From TrEMBL:
GO molecular function: hydrolase activity
Record keywords: Hydrolase
Pfam name, any one: 4HBT_2
Keyword Hydrolase tagged: yes
Name used for this protein in its record: Thioesterase family protein
Length: 135
């Protein structure tokens, strides 16, 4: 399986009163990784971004261990679990080499913001996603 890995810096403001990274921020870390992964396939012009958007339809996060604030970043691994005509599911791990902090999935829908409706994935998008799909 090919994974995209984003090395995510931790910010002091992400920590709660106990020094743990707030669990809600794990969704933001996943978003940062996903956005960087998709940067290659996302349109750069405003009209293109409106016509070829992706929206999150569902997120499920299983928290495995508390992540303490520290200077070292954490890795966010992303891969494609499955795909359909207008949507796909991404898998995630937020981890270090020796510790898993969270596992998650998100269902992503290809969307046209101009029409307010889902759209089919393009051939280029399917080809891009296939690089991160389990072989």
């Amino acid at each position: 399986m090919h994974r995209y890995t984003y090395t995510c810096p931790l910010r002091w403001a992400d920590a709660d009163a106990y020094g743990h990274i707030n669990n809600a921020l794990f969704l933001q870390y996943m978003e940062e990784a996903r956005t960087r992964m998709f940067a290659e396939v996302l349109p750069t012009d405003e009209e293109g971004r409106r016509q070829k958007a992706f929206v999150v339809a569902r997120s499920i996060v299983d928290y495995r261990a508390p992540l303490q604030y520290r200077d070292e970043p954490v890795d966010v691994h992303v891969w494609v679990v499955k795909g359909a005509a207008a949507s796909f599911e991404l898998g995630y791990e937020i981890r270090d080499a020796d510790q898993l902090y969270a596992e998650a999935t998100t269902t992503i829908v290809a969307y046209n913001l101009n029409t307010g409706r889902p759209r089919r994935l393009s051939d280029d998008e399917r080809a891009f996603l296939s690089r991160y799909t389990k072989s």
